[in-house]
Fold:
Amino acid sequence: MDVLGTLINVLVVATSATVLGWLFRGRFRAVEARIDRLEDRVAGRFDLVEHRFDLVEHRFDLVEHRFDLVDRRFEGLEGRIDVLRSDLTAVALAVGAPPRSGRSGPH
Structure:
């Protein structure tokens, strides 16, 4: 008699598990679908943030390039000012101005 009771219990548990699994299967699929959609949205957001960081990095590169151009312009300007200073010194010496001792300002 114990074997028959155990067999009935096994059948009841197996049938209950099958019915519950079948009932909740749709619910689990719905939850999995929601999780998949959420993962896709999060991945899309990460891609967007990464793209924005790339744009910011590109802008910094452009600003750095512009600073390099300004530095080159200043270097060129310094060279021209040195040439102009040399020409003015030559003109001043040619008209008889006394040479300076290297100090700027009044003597």
Notes: The longest helix spans residues 2-94. The chain has a mean pLDDT of 89. The CA atoms of residues 72 and 87 lie 23 Å apart.
